[in-house]
Design goal:
The chain has 16 helices and 9 strands. The chain is α+β, with helices and mostly antiparallel strands.
Length: 374
């Protein structure tokens, strides 16, 4: 059949050229109508979103150029052997159309993976990105081999120099890929995690993890793009454990005026015993000998019991500490260190305000005063 086509092209070249162009055009229109339109119609009529994602990424209309280009490649030298550049151009365009198709297909696979109901936020974008890079490298290698008329095996025999060039060009990509492997295998971060990355001024929620960048939506609604290879090197804080356990740490302190610190006397015991909420927490202690006890010690005991009485405060397997810290020029910091059942930020701030304002309001009953900085 090939010989027949060659004889036909030689005997009637002016008829063969329009016929080849017509067949190429019909192939283009046919594949565009059948493949592209049919795929869109199927995607629209099915209930699943997976085919929609694939069609959106693949853009089948572009794929309809491939068959006409291959037709021109196979028969261009039959028509005009001296026009070899037409054949080369057709093949190179075919290679890059196919490369674009594969890259889009890999992106579609990533979209399907991320939209799976069982998706846990562990991104595979690093592996997808590597496949895309390898596809581009293969396309570049084939293009160079074809344009230079150098056999592919011979070209790859100089792989040492070729790899050196690739390492130079794709250095950041390779480092990002290695970082992606570390992130995914060790489950360091995933989409949806709340993180702090001080080196990049990022503090917010991870919205996307790609081969090259990690996108963080900050609390002020700005966006920070962090190189994937850098986030492991610079260090970050991940709040995932806090969210999963539903526990957030409360660590606040009140500055106590040193001059208000004194030993407990009978008058203070009587004053404290007359307040019901204080009597409920340390009433048994007020019945003992408090001669060597300070009012700050009573306040600490009250705070401990008060925190234990709150249902939002976690006590099992979590520390509950109330302690005076080292005295500063601004007084004695009385620190509260507990974990509360509130992963939600707004709820946490509400609980924190309740606790700290209560403690500040109860201080005068113990004849204690906060330090006035002014």
């Amino acid at each position: 059949m090939l010989e027949t086509i060659r004889n036909f092209s030689s005997n009637t070249p002016y008829l063969f050229f329009p016929l080849l162009a017509l067949i190429a055009y019909l192939l283009y229109r046919g594949t565009k109508f059948i493949l592209a339109r049919l795929s869109y119609q199927i995607a629209l009529r099915t209930e699943t979103i997976y085919d929609d994602l694939f069609v959106d990424r693949l853009q089948p209309f572009r794929f309809s150029w491939l068959l006409p280009l291959l037709l021109i490649y196979f028969f261009a030298d039959t028509l005009f052997p001296e026009f070899v550049f037409v054949k080369k151009t057709a093949l190179i365009l075919s290679i890059w159309f196919l490369t674009d198709f594969l890259i889009s297909m890999f992106s579609g696979i990533n979209d399907v993976y991320k939209n799976n109901p069982r998706y846990t936020g562990v991104s595979v974008a690093g592996y997808i990105g590597l496949l895309q890079v390898l596809t581009v490298v293969a396309a570049i290698t084939l293009t160079i081999s074809y344009l230079s008329d150098v056999d592919l095996i011979t070209l790859l025999s100089g792989v040492g120099a070729w790899l050196a060039v690739l390492l130079l060009i794709f250095r950041d990509t390779i480092l990002s890929f290695l970082a992606s492997i570390q992130i995914s295998t060790q489950k360091l971060i995933k989409e949806g995690d709340m993180v702090d990355v001080p080196a990049f001024g990022a503090s917010g929620t991870i919205t996307e993890i790609d081969l090259q960048t990690i996108t963080v939506q900050n609390w002020d609604n700005t966006i920070t793009a962090i190189p994937t290879s850098k986030i492991v090197d610079t260090g970050f804080k991940n709040y995932r454990q806090m969210i999963e356990t539903g526990s957030r740490r409360l660590k606040r302190s009140i500055l106590i005026d040193v001059n208000s610190l004194r030993f407990v006397d009978d008058e203070l015991v009587e004053q404290l015993g007359s307040v019901n909420m204080i009597k409920q927490q340390i009433g048994d202690l007020l019945q003992t000998n408090l001669e060597q006890t300070t009012n700050l010690q009573l306040m600490i005991r009250y705070t401990q019991n008060y925190l234990r009485s709150r249902k939002e405060v976690r006590q099992r397997r979590y520390p509950l500490v109330v302690r005076p810290l080292e005295t500063t020029e601004y007084g004695i910091p009385l620190e509260v260190y507990v974990f509360v059942k509130a992963a939600n930020w707004e709820k946490f701030e509400e609980i924190q305000a309740d606790i700290m304002l209560h403690l500040m309001a109860i201080l005068p009953y113990f004849n204690l005063q906060t330090y006035d900085v002014f």
